[in-house]
Amino acid sequence: MARVAVVGAGLGGLAAAARLAALGHEVTVLEQAAEVGGKLGWFSRDGHGFDTGPSLLTLPQLYRDLFTATGAALDDVLDLVPLDPAAELRFPDGTRLRMPGRRADVPAALDAALGAGVGAQWAALMRRAEDMWRVAEEPFLRSPLAGAATLARLARNPADVATIAPWQTLRGLGSRYLSDPHLRTVLDRYATYSGSDPRRAPAVLATVAHAEQEFGSWYVRGGLHRLGLAVAERAQARGAVLRTSSPVAQVLLEGDRACGVRLASGETVRADVVVAAGDATALYRDLLPADRRTRAVRGALARTTPSLSGFVLLLALRGRTPGLAHHTVLFPEDYDAEFDAVFGGRPVADPTVYVSAPDDPATRPDDDSESWFVLVNAPRHDPAGGVDWTAPGLADAYAERVLDVLARRGLDVRDRLTWCVVRTPADLERDTGSVGGSIYGTSSNGARAAFLRPANASPVPGLFLVGGSAHPGGGLPLVALSAEIVAGLVGPA
């Protein structure tokens, strides 16, 4: 039995803690915040409730596997609801597309909204994405990074390399398969699922669209945050100890090996294994010494582009919006200008607006009200070289801009607004420890970005990384896989 200290109680840390406790280890989870969940948060006021992180779950089987491995059935604990449509997509020319939740229904919906033949093009692209998924899943997504050995696994078959096409961008893939500009915009959006720019992100991100349509989009009744609470309960049921309001100030080393952590209070927690579940950049910058052991990783991180962040409005509204989907996406006139601004360190003048409005009594005080989570892509908080989101008046002024954009695109809620809470990238950084509020740590911009992402096994023996800023990446499915990988690396007691 090893003593394991897990730094951070986001979903990755909780999932790793549950798996390691089920393997027989003595696990302690140390979380800086007063509550568990990390980016999978929840805000409530006056009967209104909001998920403040992910708003849908894909690949729920990965969490069913997690719960099975830790002694429970997911569906006995949570009520998963399939979303159909998965989202309503609205374009600046007035075109609307209600994207079905089931893959078989998508081509017909595309033909009806965008014209005959468009659905067949998308279907052909999804067949390619399915092939990409088959090639990448086992040797990359479900396996730890191993430098050149990982590349060798992926390159063992030239046909597989051609399928993945690591030299091609997501934008380039869309241009090859899709003639309709609306549909190319739909594909571009999947780059934002990893905080990336479709003009620089690899074509393999088309697998995100495949997974969403093949395995469905799901909502957890009561809010997605309940998934984090349920995983925390699994960890505790297997014996893990959860300590909130316990920020870690340093990972302790003895010789060349991790031997525990020191809390900000000065308390030392000894451990045989440390699992870092927070932001990888913060780990290597703030919690570890800058010496030969970490030089290569810090250099790799310096060569990556941080992921985009998000600017959020939590809107408490009077009345109901007829026909409103669970997710609504309002695209701008110039999508490229949005990516230019975000990765150029500027707030977006005319952003894509994402509205999540679950039809769930748990999110509203009564049936004549709504609670909207409104998100726009935003540059990270970077007072030294980009946007200082704490600058006086900036957040409030930008919130008004977002409300104006909503109104121009047909969702004017200003006369129904009871109150609005604004959350900026600076708030995300403060609340979760994510450097600059980058949602996914590093982006997938660049053909080699995935291989520059910090590995689950650090160069310091006994120190492992889990969560969205480590391999294999961000998003609820990949976070679950990172926990599975780490548990396999540590092994049973």
Automatic annotation (TrEMBL):
Membrane-traversing stretches: none
Sorted UniProt keywords: Carotenoid biosynthesis, Oxidoreductase
Pathway as given in its UniProt record: Carotenoid biosynthesis
A GO molecular function held by the record: oxidoreductase activity
UniProt keyword Cell membrane present: no
Keyword match Secreted: no
A GO BP entry: carotenoid biosynthetic process
Superkingdom per UniProt: Bacteria
All copies of domain Amine oxidase, residue ranges: 11-487
Pfam family, one: Amino_oxidase
Similarity annotation: Belongs to the carotenoid/retinoid oxidoreductase family.
PANTHER family linked to this entry: PHYTOENE DESATURASE
UniProt-recorded name of the protein: Phytoene desaturase
Organism: Petropleomorpha daqingensis
Source organism phylogeny: Bacteria, Bacillati, Actinomycetota, Actinomycetes, Geodermatophilales
